[in-house]
Amino acid sequence: MKELWSDFDGTAVGLKGKTDPRNWTKYPLPLKQGYANFLNGVHTSGVDIAGIVSRRPDIWPRRFVTHRSIAKLGLENYFNDTNVILAGSEFLKAQHVVARASNKQVGIIDDKPHHVGVELVKTLILTESSERVTLGVVNHEESIRYVNRLREAVNKMTGVEVDTTLDGKFDIAIGRAVIRVVEMLPYSFESGQHFAEKIY
Questions:
Q1: Which residues pair with 5 in a beta bridge?
Q2: What is the side-by-side order of every strand in the sheet holding 48-54?
Q3: CA-to-CA distance for 91 and 93, rounded, in angstroms?
Q4: Judging by beta carbons within 10 Å of its beta carbon (0-12, 13-18, 19+), is residue 75 exposed, middle or buried?
Q5: pTM of the entire structure?
Q6: pLDDT digits (tens, 9 = 90+) for 151-178
Q7: Which pLDDT score, from 0 to 100, does residue 158 have?
Q8: Structural domains of the chain sorted by starting position, each given as residue range(s) with its CATH number in brackets
Q9: 27 pLDDT band (50/70/90 cuts)?
Q10: Cα separation of 110 and 116, whole Å?
Q11: Residues 56, 66: contact at Cβ < 8 Å?
């Protein structure tokens, strides 16, 4: 069984500037173009849309605005009260994903792979697990720079140079565990299908 977890801010919804009140309240934030089509493509490829895992804190105002945004944006087919995890930090997001990967093939998509990717590496080192996680890098103007920052951070942490491939993916081996980093295509039904195939 394969499942997909999605970050929320910057991944499902766009963000406003730091001084924009809509960014402070987190509502109403605009849905990222093609995101719903992407989810449909993943789902029709046989991958379960497991939920949202966000670094937002699990406090009432954030739960309220997150669920209100999901309803307003028409995402209730995939996300509800039981599968939205407000983890509170990137490290706790990574722990959640690694725990899910203990008995499933898990993918997570994130707009800042250098944050959650480093925490996935730390979690896999600490747990000495053999899980495999696919980290999808959301396509945007900073994605290549963030992927390079992830490579540099992993190199400093492990002392191992990360090998890259020509098809926009590379693997980070941590003992018996592996994180597959996939540079995603812009959101669409087809890119959802493409990413679903990369989850292993």
A1: 51, 108
A2: 84-86, 48-54, 2-6, 105-110, 132-137, 177-183, 169-174
A3: 5
A4: buried
A5: 0.93
A6: 999 989 888 777 666 567 899 998 889 9
A7: 84
A8: 2-198 (3.40.50)
A9: low
A10: 8
A11: yes
